[in-house]
Amino acid sequence: FLFQGYQGMVDGGDNIVEVSWESVSSILQVGGTVIGSARCKSFRTREGRLQAAYNLVQRGITNLCVIGGDGSLTGANLFREEWSGLLEELAQKGKIDEEAVKKYAYLNIVGMVGSIDNDFCGTDMTIGTDSALHRIIEVVDAIMTTAQSHQRTFVLEVMGRHCGYLALVSALACGADWVFIPEYPPEEGWEDSMCVKLSENRARKKRLNIIIVAEGAIDCHNKPITSEKVKDLVVQRLGFDTRVTILGHVQRGGTPSAFDRILASRMGVEAVLALLEATPATPACVVSLSGNQAVRLPLMECVQMTQEVQKAMDEGRFLEAVRLRGRSFENNLNTYKLLSHKKPDAELPKTNFNVAVLNVGAPAAGMNAAVRAAVRVGITEGHKMFAVIDGFEGFARGKIKEISWGDVGGWTGQGGSILGTKRTLPAKYLEKIADQMRTNNINALMVIGGFEAYLGLLELSAAREKYDEFCVPMVMVPATVSNNVPGSDFSIGADTALNTITDTCDRIKQSASGVFIIETMGGYCGYLANMGALAAGADAAYIFEEQFDIRELQANVEHLTEKMKTSIQRGLVLRNENCNENYTTDFIYQLYSEEGKGVFDCRKNVLGHMQQGGAPSPFDRNFGTKISAKAMQWISKKLKETYRKGKVFANTDDSVCLLGMRRRNLVFQPVAELKTETDFVHRIPKEQWWLKLRPLMKILAKYKTSYDVSDSGQLEHVAMHSQKEAETGAI
């Protein structure tokens, strides 16, 4: 450990400490950093770096893993470039011998980007961003209830001096009325248009207005727009009761979210692999995430690109700044613009198409955000939107009504499914559903749901031979806590469930010493158990995908007994509900209780339906919003393609698709083609990406196992990175 960042490196002494396995136990759920961090003036001078080099050489350290923002990473790169010069100078001064100069000739550096602003180019998500979004959304959700009651306008100021990511994404996630960010200043006369929008919303009986301001927000003349300025404007022009809330350092604190824990764990492994493979010839790199794929990028290319953004903003080239921020940022901005401002009816196109949206399967947090996005994008594209209540069953009973722009206001943050949802499949109601499609003249279907939604679409497309009504474009957006839908790495609702599991495990770990057996949902899919185990720092996770026998159970018990003899008096074991029909949660609990007699106590906990409820996490709100907007745009495109002689007729496989996140991209896949990838008996995909992370969980629980490095990131270039993203549907 280097305590206190570069300051500790310069000061040396007991700031540089060799650590053991136990040193990092139970820090997974602690926010901030246990090794401290400090801004360091002396490291900016050559003398400081000379002293730092001396301290490292004294301990034979030639590999550094630096976790920080662009400042820390730029400093690290300079240090590496100067390294041999610094050693020469130390030798001349007689502080080290020539032997040491040869032995420690090269310094390897790998960076991990830890920054809540997400302002580092080349990486989709920096470590800490998701947790900061959690803090912001908790506050916004709380403020919304008071604003609603008092009919108030709230101006929220969030962090981001040079980068508007937090402001933009939280505006998307709470459906804010207006957002101010440094990369995209409002047009001249924004004061008028903002006030018009706020008063229109009041006239539509919307009782609250939320305006989000990034601390670095500017107008198009590079003049700051402060939260006070916005408040005064609203009060003077409209006389609305307006309050300012500055979130400040709340955003940096608190427990890390499940997403951040998993991201940071994956990046930690990548960093070590990158250091092991580094040579004097390879450039210093940062490990980062692109979509769901770990990548390595040259550190200086990222830094240069990050500085380019600032330069573009200073020179007023704002469109360029947005483009340089990367595909994900641009997508967020476009989606926000699409969903927050309704054009006057006169300006909307009229397509005369009717599109129905329904939720199918068990409820998942984020479904409502997906419905809202679908309805608003559909209306913007000129369609009439219909909402079906209670899935296919409700459809058969004619529970279908037109839904307007205003009807879905405030839906983003609501848990569960406002439209209701049922597990019923359409097969036994085909005739009635076809009748309803005909009566309401439905030209396209959007189904949001889990495995039942996927089966439902397969049944509807099979029924096309008999019923022309089903010869329309149909698209499915995956939404289920189990994350067991083929064709997508993620599904809406899984992140929220994962956070629930992680929070519960954190609390359980504090409640007592001993071993806890925790049962998670997921059907036969081990995603929640496996990823929950990774995020909560569990000792074992039993899943259906990886068969286990009594010998493995015995090894786990012995492993835990050994652990309990150290300073760590806690054990955590997760078990997926269907991992094995005989080794039940009770069985495992009794086994551990018997074997651990006299060494540890054992308790069990079945999490149950709490995993399906709760307010959606920022990730699920955003993922739901973006994926659903994209699905709606696909429907519009298909409707144009299949409209012939006054009617829509689509009967090809590629007109029934599932939109999924695959590694780096969002892809539309015909459901017929996904059949071969599906294990229908156990309702899971035959291949699942997260199984590759299983060894990681075991290694972190101190098991000896091999880790497949074939999937580790190869060094890429940043420019190519964004070009490739532009060609595909990066999210």
UniProtKB/TrEMBL annotation:
Catalytic activity: beta-D-fructose 6-phosphate + ATP = beta-D-fructose 1,6-bisphosphate + ADP + H(+)
SUPFAM superfamilies attached to this UniProt entry: Phosphofructokinase
Keyword Ribosomal protein attached: no
BP term (GO), one: fructose 1,6-bisphosphate metabolic process
Domain Phosphofructokinase: start-end pairs: 3-274, 354-635
Protein name: 6-phosphofructokinase type C
A GO-annotated cellular component: 6-phosphofructokinase complex
Transmembrane intervals: none
NCBIfam families: 6PF1K_euk
